[in-house]
Amino acid sequence: MIQPADLPDTIAVFPLPGALLLPRSRLPLHIFEPRYLQMLEDTLKTRQRLIGMVQPCPGPNGQGEDLHAIGCAGRVTQFSETEDGRYLVTLSGVSRFRVTRESSGFAPYRRCDVSWAGFERDLGRTEADAALDRPSFLNLLERFFTARSLSTDWEALKEAEDELLINSLAMLLEFEPEDKQALLEAPCLATRRETLVTLIEFALRGGSQEETLQ
Questions:
Q1: Are 6 and 48 in contact (CB under 8 A)?
Q2: What is the pTM of this model?
Q3: How many helices (H) and strands (E) does the chain have?
Q4: What fold, for 4-123?
């Protein structure tokens, strides 16, 4: 387990719209662009093997891409190479971070100086959601899955621990990048569940794909 003292001041970041990583969760990635292949190679040489997942956002006047202030770092825990040189990678979520500034340098990928302050809970134990009304939540989820023609293992959802249930849905369900950012920034599991419920209810009411949670 990574301790607070092990967290570096600078990490490579992977800006990927709509891709959400949360602490103690796993995110599969398919890496094939040369700059990100270099990022993976460099990351595997470090002791912590951390990559920061962060949502990009349009820069001023639509020029380039800025980064959201808060992202989540994951440790490379699995990787395999395909015959044509691509990599299938699994990141295990470690902790959220706040970008303090983007680093300059010669790397073809982006690197940021980051602060881990305020996210100490991410390195702790699995969270529970004491206020979760599981039957009501699953009923809402079933309506959403039916409306979107989605399928799932309902028995597994009924048995899943609170954090696994809520975080997996937050990561897997398709929402706008700004909505994913709101899920990431939720200060605790209960708030993330409330945000998730709001997004699902909004979608069921026929919310526009262009609208996002404010």
A1: yes
A2: 0.90
A3: 6, 8
A4: 2.30.130
110-148 pLDDT, tens digit each = 999 999 999 999 999 999 999 999 999 999 999 999 999
| Residue of 192 and 210 predicted with greater confidence | 192
What angle, rounded to 10 degrees, do the helices at 162-172 and 189-204 form? 50
CA 181/CA 36 separation, integer angstroms? 22
The Cβ of residue 37 has, within 10 Å, a number of other Cβ atoms equal to: 17
SS3 for 1-66 is CCCHHHCCCEEEEEECCCCCCCCCCEEEEEECCHHHHHHHHHHHCCCCCEEEEECEEECHHHCCEE
**CA–CA separation, 181 vs 18, rounded Å?**
8
What does the domain layout of the chain look like in residue ranges? Answer: 4-123, 134-204
